[in-house]
Amino acid sequence: MTARLTAVVIALVAACREAPVEPCPSLRVAGIAAERAAPVARATPFDSAFAAAGAEFHVPPALLKAIGWVETRWEMVQGAEEFAGRAPAFGVMALRGTALERGAARAAVTPEAARRDPLANIRAAAALLDAFADEAAIDRSRTGQWSDVIARYSEIERPDGRAAYTREVDRALGGASPPLGQAPAAAPIACQPPPGSGGAPDYGPAVWRPSPNFNARPSDSTGRVHLLIIHTCESNYASCWSWLVNPASQASVHYVVSEDGDEISQLVHEGDRAWHIAATYDCTLNRRHDCWLNGVQSNDFTTGIEHAGFASQGSFPTSQIEASAALACDVTRDRGIPRDWQHIVGHGQLQPANRTDPGPNWPWTTYLHRVQALCGETVVDDSAPFNDPALAAAVVPDAWSASDSTPGYYGGGYRWASTQSDATDGAAFSFRLAAPASRAVDARWTSGTNRSPQAAYAVISSAGDTLALVRVDQRTGGGGWRALGTWAFPAGWNRVVLLRGGAAGSVVVADALRVRQ
Amino acid sequence: MPRVASVIALVTLVSNACGGHEPRETPRQSAAAARVSAPQDTSFAGTTAPVQRASRPGTPPRVLRGVTAASGPGYDRVVFEFAEDSVPGYHVEYTTKPVRRCGSGDPVTVAGAGKLVVRFEPAQAHDERGNSTIAERERTLGLPAAKDMKLICDFEGQVEWVLGVVAAGPYRVLDSPGGGRGGGRVVVDIRHHP
After folding, report:
1. In the CATH scheme, what is the homologous superfamily, with its name and number, of domain A193-375?
2. Cβ neighbours, 10 Å, residue A26
3. Which residue, A107, A437, A498, A501, is most buried by CB atoms nearer than 10 A?
4. What pLDDT was estimated at residue A155?
5. What is the architecture, at CATH level 2, of domain A379-516?
């Protein structure tokens, strides 16, 4: 990073700190932003144009490049009129309307060239910034003053929207180091939520952008936060949250995660009822889970996470999934929501009539595994597709029948077998530890009157030592995690085996095992 | 009023409401609409069945920038105008179920005995800065067939209106592209109740 660019970054950081209406800045999800190079460090086909135009009009080339990244991700766009009164945007710099004409005139190119030709477009943008800088009478050697020019370039009227735009430019410049708002002197002031906003976010790293679109959850059991709903915005991040804080939208959500996961907005407190899912609950759409909630409006008992992007997209950025998983871990931990397939579900699953989000390519298995891992747990299902093969594996004898007829199972179903006094086989749930550790172990089954009252789980270390034999009554306690105990396990593949041996006349159910710190 | 004069009046009314020109409408899906030779035809049979047109996968959202309504001889017309030259997918259907806002799930009531739901996808009625792109999200129409209309969804790429109509009678759906400066339109004509 050049000295000048560094100065711009520092100045922008300082400018953001001083903004009186600035919401709590993102603390950034640990480790994610820092792992990636700043966008301006990447090569683009327009680098020479940024350099030349910057030199010609006395605008930092990195600033031009950063604005281009924020506006178009360095693509030559040919905009359509978005709505009456707002002119279409053109070129790498997304110039539009009178601003385009003014910049073009100042750069001595035609408006048409500024629309179609990348060099002319970038020169026109640089000339416009040059004009703004002149009019603001900024001292260009004191680069902190560029933030007002950047905000003016955005043409955004809302103060929080201007601040968000400026932060995006800062991020493009590599503002993650030092992260915005992390300077000790600024934090106490900068992190005050806006007046009347109703407080701070529930999730520490989130930016608090309160939406008026919420009401109270029911005070009875139907209002207990119970499910986490995964959405996609069908738009970009800024458009998503800025619309959902507008009272006209009559919609909201608790959280919005940006495209690359480096910022999360919280719009509604988790304890309040956000407006993100129209469907009334139908348990047949959710593995017949909690059918007593049938007919209850789903907003009453759910927390929603929107993700910038589209249900139709082919994949989701790893960093977005990671940030969302960290958030989901936090929400589920705070709200006592089990991290399984009935409690973390897609909007489209519960509202199939007119929603598909987050779409067919949301990486459900990876996502759920990350949520679990970040919360310190590993789940071993009876079925391989639901397991992380690096950490979990199950071996169930072929003779054990598969079923999903009793709800409350983990994954796609469970396996069962009749007890027999001389049987020696069992369903083995194995989990790998990288190092010796003490772990609590929970088992899961589905209950029924025909279940064994003495189902035996053998806890066996990677060295082959039987650490314990635990008996449970599977006639009750199904559909949730039931503690077997806590043991010190060696590194390697340890296992817990549900045995079939026992008095004939009942069945044992092998559903899943959970290992937690 | 003589027929010709009334047709001219209707065309003028709709043209004024929709930006000063009246592009040729292209009937979609509805067999009844396919037989219609001109939008001002007052004798279209219409349908009470769902009418829909799917959008291509991956199409970016279309931005609704205007909604107008007018009455002519034999039917009421509601025009949805988009900022782009093309229109989003749409699904138009009478419903007897409760109509709810897609965010809150709150029930929405409209005047009349029929509820015609008009859904666009992918679409939005707000801009990238979070500002609404249409002036009114609820309107009292007071027309012979169409009594009122309410926006019940502008969320996650769907825009959905419910039209309160006197009765669940025949309607048709037409669409037309814009003229190079946006203005793609979807038109819903609702026949007057006999």
Report:
1. Peptidoglycan recognition protein-like (3.40.80.10)
2. 22
3. A498
4. 78
5. Sandwich (2.60)
Query: What is chain A's Cα-based Rg?
Result: 28
Q: State the pLDDT at residue A161.
A: 66
pLDDT in tens, B25-39: 443 333 333 333 344
Calpha distance A466→A71 (Å, rounded): 62
Q: What confidence category does residue A39 fall into, taking pLDDT thresholds of 50, 70 and 90? A: confident
Measured between beta carbons, the chain B residues lying within 8 angstroms of A279 are: 105
Q: Which segments of B20-157 does DSSP mark as H helices, in order?
A: 31-34
ipTM rounded to 2 decimals:
0.73
> What residue ranges define each of the domains in chain B, with the CATH number in brackets?
3-191 (2.60.40.3500)
Residues of chain A with CATH 3.40.80.10: 193-375
Do A253 and A273 form a contact (C-beta atoms < 8 A)?
no
Kindly state the percentage of chain A with pLDDT values over 90. Answer: 70
Question: What CATH code is assigned to A3-172?
Answer: 1.10.530
Please determine, for residue A256, whether its predicted confidence score (pLDDT) is greater than 50.
yes
Nearest CA in chain B to A306: B156
Q: What is the pLDDT of residue A26?
A: 37
Instruction: Decide if A357 touches B, using CB distance below 8 A.
Output: yes
Nearest-CA neighbor of A93 among A125, A130, A62? A125
CB B84 within 8 A of CB A80: yes
pLDDT > 50? residue A177: no
Nearest chain A Cα distance for residue B147, angstroms: 22
* pLDDT for B6 beyond 70: no
- Rounded to whole angstroms, the Cα distance separating A455 from A514 reads 17
- Chain B CB contacts of A354 under 8 Å are 102, 119, 158
Write down the mean pLDDT value for chain A.
Answer: 86
**What is the side-by-side strand order in the sheet with A512-516?**
A377-381, A512-516, A437-444, A482-489
